[in-house]
Amino acid sequence: MNHTPALTLLREAADLLPDTSGYALAYGSHATDTHQPTSDLDLLYTGPHPLDDAGLTALTAAVVALHHRNGLDLDEEVPYPVKLYATSDQVDQAAALAGFQLSWGTPAPTVRETGFLSTDAFRLRLIFNVLTSPHVFLGGDITAYHRQVRCAERSAAILAQSLTTDDGPPSLLEAWAALWRAPDGRTGKDYLGYLAAPHLLSVLTRGLADHNPTTLRPQPSR
Fold first, then answer.
1. Burial class of residue 41 in the structure, from the number of CB atoms within 10 Å of its CB (0-12 exposed, 13-18 middle, 19+ buried)
2. 170, 166, 134: which is closest to 149 by C-alpha?
3. What is the dihedral of CA 115, 25, 101, 109, to 10 degrees?
4. Domain span at 172
5. Which member of 1, 52, 75, 152 has the greatest number of CB atoms within 10 A?
6. Is residue 220 part of a domain?
7. Where do the H-state alpha helices sit in the chain?
8. Contacts of 203-208 spanning 24+ positions with Cβ under 8 A
């Protein structure tokens, strides 16, 4: 089977953006160039207004058709109506950590079952993870995109600080570890969805400096 080149695939996905007042992102393996020929394409579309049932059904069908047309697997562990589209208000809420309110200050539980993965709290946590993980901007309102990513990076620093147990602000590496590994050892999709990768260090470096330039403890010299 011939598979569509990644750039062409991303352009096809960009063309599905329902409203250019929002924006579209690709994340996951296609954003880090670690995908296999049939890896699913993780997408998030945003817009100023909610999609009605017909609009969301049409967008979902178009994304599923894109996968079938290009020989890609489908990953529906998180239902498409939950993960595919968010309003600008929902993205703002996610970037401000609304998805963590019920578990603030403790490692947020992740239950990989449909009931939990379909909740509003998980939707907001997923959006937050997309904004603070490697992703590709596909098109739309780049001003709104930059504003929301910057807010999410500041929030990542705040979230990391809430998850560290030492008195005083965490070091960069302590903040980094708090976000990708739970105290009980859970990582990845069983925790907050992050990998132990350099991108998260960059996010926290910007977020910690932007949130409060005095809170970042220097690393010990080696």
1. buried
2. 134
3. 50
4. 6-211
5. 152
6. no
7. 6-14, 29-32, 53-69, 80-83, 88-95, 114-117, 120-132, 142-163, 172-180, 198-211
8. 203/132, 203/153, 203/156, 204/153, 204/156, 204/157, 204/160, 204/172, 204/175, 204/176, 204/179, 205/172, 206/150, 206/153, 207/153, 207/154, 207/155, 207/156, 207/157, 207/158, 208/157, 208/169, 208/172, 208/175
pLDDT along the chain (222 residues), means of 10: 69 96 96 91 97 97 96 94 97 96 73 83 95 97 98 96 80 93 90 90 92 44 32
Task: Tell me if 24 sits within 8 A of 16, measured CB to CB.
Answer: yes
Q: At 39, list the tokens.
A: 């890896």
Residue 148 in any domain: the answer is yes
Domain count, the chain: 1
